[in-house]
Amino acid sequence: MTAVDERGMTKFCVDILDEASEPVPDLAVVERDLLPGSGRLLPSSLITMVVEVVSKSSVHQDYVVKRSIYAAGKTPPTSSSTRSWRTASC
Fold first, then answer.
1. Which of 14, 30, 42, 66 has the smallest number of CB atoms closer than 10 Å to its CB?
2. For 35-51, how does the pLDDT look when each residue is reduced to its tens digit (9 = 90+)?
3. Model pTM?
4. DSSP 3-state percent helix, strand, coil across the chain (nearest 5)
């Protein structure tokens, strides 16, 4: 059985052939009918798109390391979104 968090979201690692690393995208788009019934690894061949939310502490990991891993696994293009923080002044 696949684990589902308190928001009803399922967390998968991407299974990339010939790659030791199992990246965990912030969001993976997959056709519902293709989702595995159990396990924590999602074969990269089933993924339509992955999204990484980039913060100050993850710039290199998300833009360089993970993109390289996804490209090696022929995962469809990665979209990255930079998280911006704003401070409200009163």
1. 30
2. 777 777 888 888 888 88
3. 0.64
4. 25, 30, 45
